[in-house]
Amino acid sequence: MIANTPFGRRGLLAGAGLALLPLGAARAQETWPARPVRIVVSYGAGGAVDTVARLVFQRVEKKLGQPFVIENRAGAGGSIAAAAVAQSKPDGYSFLHDASGFAINPALLPRLPYDPLRDFSPVGAIVTVPNTLLLGPACPANTVAQLIALAKKSPGELTCASTGTGSSQHLALELFNRTAGVEITHVPYRDAPAAQNDLRAGRISMILSTATSALPLHGQDKLRVIAHTDDTAVARLPGVPSVAETLPGYRSLEWHGLYAPAGLPPAIVATMNTALNQTLAEAELVERLAGIGVRASPMSPEAFSGFLRGEIEKWGKLIKEAGITIG
């Protein structure tokens, strides 16, 4: 499963190599952890990000011998949690588990009380989650090519929901519009259930949502996933093609990463990254994550840092060009 990591071959090799290091190598330089470790999750309890955090860190704590305590700090697209960790001591007892919004917020929320590159030490990638095109009864398309043809025939008439302006799914739609040369109208919703109800009722054409959200709906009430946004097959969506098969080069993934306050000693970064990568390689966890449409994606700190910079640049450019603002 690790060989399919969507972060790229360089990141895979770096992450997999580090995952094989003995934990004792870093422990020889640090006596960390000597007490419980706090994992601040940027979204509320019971949501997809929280679920992944609990699945992963209940296993990491067994490797490191101390409790890992999940603390949910939802709000402002994840920036409340990020600010709390940025202001914490870089002693290895406060980490941030955040999703793609960490790379989106710098362009979307220019008055952030932190800098994502200056104020954090990237520790490692955790998972990736493909987005999906989930169509309802109001849209007759069954393939990406048919969807594009409908959109070109009637610009702006097709509507696509997401869970908010500036969300990674909204940006995935903007990227789709630009790549395909179409105009599908974005309709932001405060929560997924409201959007799903309107999709069933035919009030909107489609939802661009994570695989985690779309999987339980696929095949119900004339709802169907016609494509996903990964570049490898999604196990829980057999036979469903990628958008890139019709639009070469298109790719848009939700992803989670782990961060510490800037200045965390390298030995602690190495110990945490090794424990995290070894956990993400466990067959049972890989299977549990795949069951909810999520792929374990271990990386080294260096590879993850490079990936993060690329995501900040990619989405920052799109937000600026599309004139996306909130508030």
Can you offer a commentary on this structure?
Helix 7 links the parallel strand 5 and strand 6. The protein has two domains: 198 residues, Bordetella uptake gene, domain 1 (D-Maltodextrin-Binding Protein, domain 2, 3-Layer(aba) Sandwich); 116 residues, D-Maltodextrin-Binding Protein, domain 2 (3-Layer(aba) Sandwich), CATH 3.40.190. 46% of the residues are buried. The N terminus is likely disordered. It is globular, with a radius of gyration of 20 Å. With 327 residues, the chain is of the alpha/beta class. Strands 1, 2, 3, 4, 5, 6, 7, 8, 9 and 10 form a ten-stranded mixed sheet that branches. The protein contains twelve helices and ten strands. This is Twin-arginine translocation pathway signal. Keywords: Signal. Belongs to the UPF0065 (bug) family. InterPro entries: BUG, Bug_dom1.
